[in-house]
Design a protein that fits this description.
Number of domains: 3
Helix content: 40-55%
Strand content: 15-25%
Largest sheet: 4 strands, antiparallel
Structural class: alpha+beta
Number of helices: 9
Order of helices and strands: HHHEEHHEEHEEHHHEE
Radius of gyration: 24 Å
């Protein structure tokens, strides 16, 4: 199911928790077997958890195996589509998680890392740090929502309609056709600058 289902739990915690819950449920409903069988099974899982946790602190390779490792989803402002697929995320998941961190525009993101906890860490682009704009006396343009006109190789007709464009305009801006669109992970149109930014798969 991926890290999204684990949230703040480690993979080992998740497995142990589910297993103990299943054993406890079985104990509550199975009246034929002695109850100490179930206590023995839970004790084994508890000891296994303690042993693996101890060795994970000592052995780096075991820690990576149990907890996983962070995955870069955006690097130098470009979406790493292969890593996105490895993480069992799609474009909408990435955009939603970035918005939850306060980044509504991918141009503001230099690096985005998918942590082992299932959360993301974002390193903002240098040009998007508010303090720098204020220090040089430059007033940034008012924020506005962009429109994602292509997602996962499919044209978002509703978004095109909202910006007053059509599919032919999109093909012309991309310099291609339907086959070109299939190779695009995300294409975002910025109304205030008439810019179309494309991330390929």
């Amino acid at each position: 199911m991926g890290k999204k289902q684990i949230a703040q739990l480690s993979f080992l915690d998740y497995v142990i928790g589910i297993s103990l819950g299943s054993i406890a449920a079985e104990m509550a409903t199975d009246l034929d077997r002695p109850f100490y069988y179930f206590f023995l099974a839970m004790a084994i899982y508890l000891v296994l958890d303690l042993i693996l946790t101890f060795f994970a602190r000592k052995a780096t390779f075991l820690k990576k195996f149990i907890r996983g490792r962070p995955i870069i989803l955006v690097e130098n402002g470009k979406i790493c589509y292969k890593n996105l697929c490895r993480s069992k995320l799609d474009i909408n998941d990435l955009l939603s998680m970035c918005r939850a961190k306060g980044y509504f525009d991918l141009r503001e993101v230099a690096y985005c890392i998918f942590e082992t906890s299932g959360d993301i860490s974002v390193l903002p682009a240098a040009s998007s740090v508010p303090a720098k704009s204020m220090e040089v006396g430059v007033t940034p343009p008012p924020p506005s929502l962009s429109k994602d006109v292509v997602e996962d190789g499919k044209v978002v007709l509703k978004a095109l309609s909202e910006v007053g464009k059509d599919v032919l305009w999109l093909y012309e801006r991309l310099g291609g056709d339907e086959e070109t669109v299939k190779n695009i992970a995300l294409a975002t149109y910025y109304c205030e600058t008439d810019e179309l930014r494309v991330h390929f798969k």
